[in-house]
Design a protein that fits this description.
Elements (H helix, E strand, L loop, with lengths): L8 E5 L7 H4 L7 H13 L3 E2 L2 E2 L3 H6 L7 H8 L2 H4 L4 E8 L9 E7 L2 E7 L2 H13 L5 E5 L8 H6 L5 H7 L3 E2 L10 H10 L3 E2 L4 E3 L14 E6 L2 E9 L3 H4 L8 E3 L6 H11 L4 E7 L2 H8 L9 E3 L11 E2 L4 E3 L7 E10 L2 E11 L9 H11 L3 H4 L2 E5 L12 H14 L3 E4 L17 E4 H7 L5 E8 H16 L13 E3 L1 E6 L8 E6 L2 E2 L5 E7 L16 E9 H12 L11 E3 L5 H6 L7
Parallel strand pairs: 4-7, 7-8, 8-9, 12-14, 14-15, 15-17, 21-28
Antiparallel strand pairs: 1-25, 1-30, 2-3, 4-18, 5-6, 10-13, 11-12, 16-17, 18-19, 20-22, 21-24, 23-28, 23-29, 25-26, 26-27
Helix pairs in contact: 6-8, 15-18
């Protein structure tokens, strides 16, 4: 496989093109050697940092499932010191970004160079799996969640997360970290939901920003220490400091976020020198790029692992930073990370890390949890199970630049409001929805709509100049591809319809866009263009989809949910035409497909 040139251009064309069968099958599973080559190439393009890469996501999401390895497990417990009782095994089970996906669902894999979908996840499956793994080391196991748990599904949205809390408590988590979406219902509801967990809560960078005596205090304890298996283990928590910018600003009202490097060394020293912890872990919800960036900062010296979350990466081998290692356990309750460590007198003698599938064929769903989920859904069952449309093509959101799911959303916006440009945010959440092979269609329910658009925002329009459009596009590309990981927002490239953009990922900030066409015509810097996107609660009236200084901004009296339901009433089942519209140029081989995901015609 040849290496792509750093000046490769990616062109998103939202008006033309569709995937050929060959293009659909161009996803390749990376071997250990080609993965190293990929990461080096990503670094050349300014996508990676350290040995991690900002565009690892489509690869991680595509990687084939890895079954639990009894040989590796046997190796840990066959350790001589463990058998002689001189050493102990500590097991950490780590989930993250469950996004309230209560039931078994479709999940995306690549096998034999083809996309395949399998049934994974579900709270009942996850509970059985955790119980089985915990039973192998009952006194030495801790179960951890890395955030974004009580947002992302219909039951969660309709109860502001309250219905999810008892389910997590029933599984028996030990430590919970708030994620960037935990603020979605506002500070007060976040606190009520988080403190209702039986598990310990940790977060060292979320502070009260109030006018009372709580101002400046931490909302949650900054760290947690557990004496387990004869060893003292410390955990320090961090949420994404960019949360107020990534989410609607109103969600974080009353909360002050700070960067981890401002106080992490203080807590590491406290845990190592005063508490005499044998190991220290950072629990973070910051995204893979920022987490690997953090692993390269001297401030985290002394940390054994960063157990990360947020970008839904399936990290199957811990990423080596300069000062520590980074993992991330996928999303939607489809995967569970398992880290086994052998400690003898405070010294690590052996360790094994695995990313395991939450597979209902391997782990029979727990009957008690199935009943609890059924009861949680019962008040909303008729509403959530309502079929609002059908699709003939898989609705997927696993690709960096263009996704069938967001093509569908921007189609609906364009149909309803007829703007020059329709915009959908670069979201990462929502598992796939795959047509039944026997019928050729999949039913889109109201519950799935909540997973696809977990906040039913009102549509908003405004006028922007061509100059504003160009500057905004450069800013959004910087958010996704910044060489400095701290400047990446954790999402993917914003999606749109009505304009074509050709850009070079590896260029410097502000110099990535090569050209933009709107409605088939070259961008006019002076001309005003009408755009429609979703309202972000708390933004100024003149801000739309992070574009500032928008003229004539106004809400359109229709929420995105209502718009989608209206669209599906007339355009269901959805045609496969939405699957791919984009093109890419100057690509020497299929590696660029791996970088960018599905939807690109190579010339």
């Amino acid at each position: 496989m040849s290496r792509p040139h750093p000046s490769i251009c990616a062109c998103t064309n939202c008006n033309a093109g569709r995937l050929t069968q060959k293009e659909k099958e161009l996803h390749l599973e990376i071997s250990s050697n080609s993965r190293r080559e990929f990461l080096r190439t990503a670094g050349m393009l300014g996508l990676g940092m350290g040995v991690g890469g900002g565009l690892v996501t489509p690869m991680a999401a595509a990687a084939s499932n890895t079954p639990e390895s009894n040989l590796e497990e046997a190796g840990i417990y066959a350790n001589k010191a463990v058998k002689n009782g001189k050493a102990s095994v500590i097991t950490l089970l780590h989930s993250a970004d469950i996004h309230s996906q209560l039931s078994i669902h479709d999940e995306f894999f690549i096998e034999n160079e083809k996309v395949v979908y399998k049934k994974r996840g579900g709270f009942a499956t996850l509970k059985t799996m955790i119980n089985k793994l915990r039973a192998k080391n009952p006194s030495g196991t801790l179960v951890i969640d890395g955030g974004d748990c009580f947002q992302g599904g219909g039951v969660a949205a309709l109860t502001e997360g309250k219905a999810i809390v008892p389910l997590i408590n029933n599984i028996g988590y030990d430590i919970m970290l708030p994620g960037n979406w935990e603020v979605v219902y506002g500070k007060e509801m976040m606190m009520k939901d988080m403190f209702a967990y039986n598990a310990v809560k940790v977060c060292a960078n979320m502070f009260h920003k109030t006018n009372d005596t709580y101002n400046g205090d931490l909302i949650f304890p900054p760290y947690f220490i557990k004496y387990i298996g004869g060893s003292k283990i410390g955990f320090i928590g961090y949420n994404d400091p960019l949360t107020p910018k990534r989410q609607s600003p109103a969600y974080s009202d009353g909360i002050q976020f700070t960067s981890p490097e401002l106080n992490v060394s203080k807590y590491i020293r406290l845990l190592k020198e005063y508490e005499h912890c044998d190991m220290v872990f950072l629990l973070t919800h910051m995204g893979l790029a920022q987490q690997v960036g953090l692993a390269n900062m001297v401030e985290v010296k002394g940390v054994d692992y960063i157990l990360g979350a947020d970008t839904h990466e399936r990290v199957r081998t811990p990423i080596e930073g300069k000062y520590t290692k980074v993992t991330e356990p996928g999303a939607f309750g489809s995967f569970l990370a398992k880290l086994d460590i052998v400690l003898e007198n405070g010294v690590v003698k052996d360790q094994s890390y695995q990313l395991l599938d939450v597979d209902p064929d391997r782990y029979k769903p727990d009957a008690e949890m199935e009943k609890l989920v059924e009861n949680a859904r019962a008040p909303f069952k008729a509403q959530l199970d309502k079929v609002i449309g059908k699709t003939k093509t898989p609705l997927v959101r696993y690709y960096v630049i263009e996704t069938p799911m967001d093509n569908f959303i921007t189609d609906a916006i364009m149909w309803k409001f007829k703007p020059d440009i329709a915009i959908s945010n670069g979201f990462r959440f929502c598992p796939p929805l795959v047509p039944d092979p026997s019928t050729g269609v999949a039913e889109i329910t109201k519950d799935y709509l909540w997973s696809m658009l977990p906040v039913d925002s009102e549509a908003k329009e405004g006028l922007i100049t061509g100059r504003q459009l160009l500057d905004w596009m450069e800013k959004e590309l910087q958010n996704a591809f910044a060489k400095d990981p701290a400047k990446r927002f954790g999402g993917w490239v914003v999606r749109f319809k009505g304009m074509d953009v050709k850009f070079t990922i590896g260029n410097e900030v502000g110099k990535r866009v090569q050209h933009i066409n709107v409605g088939g015509e070259p961008l006019d810097i002076q001309k005003k263009y009408r755009i429609v996107a979703c309202e972000r609660e708390g933004d100024p009236d003149t801000t739309l989809c992070r574009i500032e200084g928008v003229a004539g901004a106004k809400r359109l009296g229709s929420t995105l949910h209502n718009m989608i339901e209206e669209y599906l009433a007339l355009h269901s089942p959805i045609s496969p035409e939405i699957e791919g519209r984009c093109t890419a140029t100057d690509a020497p081989d299929s590696l660029l497909t791996q970088l960018m995901g599905v939807g690109y015609e190579f010339r």
